[in-house]
Amino acid sequence: MTTSGFRNPSVVVIGAGMTGILLAIELEKAGITDITILEKKHDLGGTWRENTYPGVACDIPAHMYTYSFAPNPEWSHRFAHGDEIQAYFKRVSDEYKVTPKIHFNEAVTESSYQNAKWTIKTSKDKTYVSDFLISATGILHHPAKPNIPGLERFQGKCFHTAEWDHSVPLEGKRIGVIGTGSTAAQVIPEVMKLGKKVSVFQRTPQWIVKVPDTTYTEEDKKKWRKEPNLLKRFHKWYTFAVEQTFSKAVIGKKIPHMLMSFLCKRNLRTSVKDPELRKKLTPNYRVGCKRVIVNSTFYDAIQKPNADLVTEGIEKITEKGVVTKDGKLHELDVLVLATGFHPFHFMRPMNLTGENGISIETAWKKKVQAYRSLFIPHFPNFVLMLGPNTPIGNFSVIAMSEVQTKYVLKIIEDWRRGKFNSIQATEEALHRFAAYLKKGMAGTVWLGGCQSWYLDPDGDPAMWPYTWKQWEKEMKTPDYNDFSLTTQ
Ligand code: NAP
C-alpha cells in the first residue's frame, strides 16, 4: 500500500530494450516503485545493441523514432545510425534512472503463475516473485540462419548480420551476402566499399523507395536545442506523413498505394541503367507485400564493378563458397547471412507456464496469437509487449510501444485500486479479436503473392489490418468485458 492508498504492485519486465526502458519510465511516473528489469545481455538497447553491422541505421526518420517525451536535437541524419540510437537509449535510461533497475547478464529461464503471483527464475539461479510479468523482448531478435546444405562446411568466415564479427577484415576480400531485405540493403553498399568482389545472393527482389538521408548541421541542432517544441512538431509531422503514405498503402488504401507503387517503380527505373539488371531487380508482387525498403544507396552499390547480383538459386555451400543451381562455384572469403529473424519466437525459449500448468508451447500450439496483441488467455497478469498483430509495417515501433504501455498502465492502475487481483483475456475475446483481424486482412497488400516475415505458418499476416488512428482509438481504454477477473 502506498501513501495514496493504492496498492503498489511488483512488476518484472523482461528485456531492457526500447520497450523495457519505456515501461520502467511510465510505471515509475505512475508511482510504481517495485520494478525489476531482467536483461539477458551485458548492456541495454536490444536491437541497437545487437545490430552493429556496417551501415546499420533506422529507416524511420530519426525525429519520429524517439520517445514522444524525449525529443533528441542531436541526431546527425534524417535516418539515425545504430550507434547514435544506442547512445540515445542509454542517455534516456540514465536520465530517467532506469539503468539501476536493470539486472544485466540475467536471462529469464522460466516463469510460472500461481495464486496471482509470477515466480521468475533466471540464469543466475535467482528467483523473483511479482504481481505482474511483462515481456518486452521485441519481435526481431532470434537470428534466422538459412538451412542450406553444406553451410557448416564453409572454411571462410561466416556470420549473421545480427552477430557481426568485427574481428574479420573485409578489405580486398571476396564477400558473399545472402539476402536482400532491409538489413542487406544497408550492409551491401558498405561492404562494397571494402571488398574486392561482393556477390549478392538474391532469392526474391524487393521494392525500394528512395528517401534522401539529409545530414543535419550544427545550426539545425542549435535551433532544436533552443526550441524543443520544433522537434515535437517534427515528430507529429513524420508520424502523420508515414501514416498517410506507407501505413495506408499497405492496408490497401488506393491512393497511398498508387503513390507508393509509383515511387518504388520510378526509383528502380531511374536508378538502374542496365535493363537486364533492372529486370533481375524487379519484384513480381505488389508494393508493400514485403516490407518496403527505405534506402538510397543499394541501387548505386549493386551497379558498381565489384558487385555481382546472383539470381540463380543456391544449391549448396562448400568449403570454398556458394554453389548455385547452374553449377557455378562463387568462391568466397567471407559469407554474410542477411537472412532475417524468427518473428514468432517472442519471449521464448524461456518456459512460460500459466494457470493450471499450461505452457506457452501448448497455448500457442495451433497459432501464435494474443488478445489486442498483449494478453494471452490462461496467462493472468502477463503482458506480451509488441505481440502478434501489433501494427508493425513501416511505422515507428516506439509509437506502438507507447500506445500499448498506456493501455497496460490503465489495467495496472485498476489493479492498484483493488478492482481485481488477476486479469486475463478470455478465449472468446481472443477468437473475436482474431476474426476481426482476419476480416480486415482481405484488403491488405500482405496477401499480395509474396512470402515475408509478416506471415505466420498458416499464411496469415501477423499485422494490424486497419489504420493507425483506428488502432490508437481502440487501444484507448481496456474493455473489461473481454477479460476474466478474479478478486482473491
Ligand atoms: P528479411 O526482410 O526477412 O530478409 C531476409 C532476406 O534473406 C530475404 O531477402 C530472404 O529472401 C533472404 N533469405 C532468407 N533465407 C534464405 C535462404 N535460405 N536462401 C536465400 N535467401 C534467403 O530480414 P532483414 O533484412 O533482416 O529485415 C527484417 C526486418 O528488420 C525488416 O523488415 C525491418 O522490419 C527490420 N529492419 C529494420 C531496419 C531499420 O532500418 N529500421 C533495418 C534492418 C531491418 P526471400 O525474400 O526470398 O525470403
From TrEMBL:
Phosphoprotein among keywords: no
EC number: 1.14.13.-
Keyword Iron: no
Pfam families recorded: FMO-like (PF00743)
UniProt keyword terms in alphabetical order: FAD, Flavoprotein, Monooxygenase, Oxidoreductase
Gene Ontology MF: a single term: N,N-dimethylaniline monooxygenase activity
InterPro entries (alphabetical): FAD-bind_Monooxygenase_sf (IPR051209), FAD/NAD-bd_sf (IPR036188), Flavin_mOase (IPR000960), Flavin_mOase-like (IPR020946)
PANTHER family: FAD_NAD(P)-BINDING DOMAIN-CONTAINING PROTEIN-RELATED, L-ORNITHINE N(5)-MONOOXYGENASE-RELATED
Protein name, UniProt field: Putative flavin-containing monooxygenase
